[in-house]
Amino acid sequence: xxxxxxxxxxxxxxxxxxxxxxxxxxxxxxxxxxxxxxxxxxxxxxxxxxxxxxxxxxxxxxxxxxxxxxxxxxxxxxxxxxxxxxxxxxxxxxxxxxxxxxxxxxxxxxxxxxxxxxxxxxxxxxxxxxxxxxxxxxxxxxxxxxxxxxxxxxxxxxxxxxxxxxxxxxxxxxxxxxxxxxxxxxxxxxxxxxxxxxxxxxxxxxxxxxxxxxxxxxxxxxxxxxxxxxxxxxxxxxxxxxxxxxxxxxxxxx
Length: 254
Prior knowledge:
By secondary structure, the protein is of the alpha/beta class. It has helices spanning 27-34, 70-82, 133-145, 183-193, 214-217, 225-253; strands spanning 20-24, 38-46, 49-56, 59-65, 87-96, 106-115, 129-130, 150-158, 176-180, 196-206. The longest helix is centred in the C-terminal third of the chain and has 29 residues, at 225-253.
């Protein structure tokens, strides 16, 4: 394969990838998800962009990592779309923003606040970041079938991870379920290109100020058994949701 056969930023092939993709932040998580697939092969690994292909219950899928933060992640989303991916699910982690959402629970995103640090430079802020309804429903069906604790709601995609002088109060009482760093960039990219996209997030801590219990938790620590168990459930839920989306697409095309 020559350099001309590869896309410039991620170095993924311009053609040949399965059109159903699961995107994650951590390259190691991409490898862990790929290990659940039949016939998994590493397609490429450049910078934070690690890409695998394989099959889940007979469905060819792409699994790819995008790193931390929307400005870098959107480059993967754009180049995967250039390479022919038509359906995206982001599988990541997030902090809970309201009471009743526990560590290890899944949050299925209906839409995202565009505070991602990149899409504001691409189009007006009034443009929404919304999940495809069929992606939301597929994720919900898959979560129910897996008996995975889950919630639906709005998420806040925010560029800054570490807290600063500005408190996390901008969306108090707005009903947000969770906060994360990349999803709105995916949803905007998909909407602009007429693609299907959604996201499911594993809660690895509480971010709303009134929910943080540092005395009992010791502060933010995503490396706990309850989170690991949620990640394992979330990987299966995400892959199964891709299969349901493909099944629905085949039925509508028949």
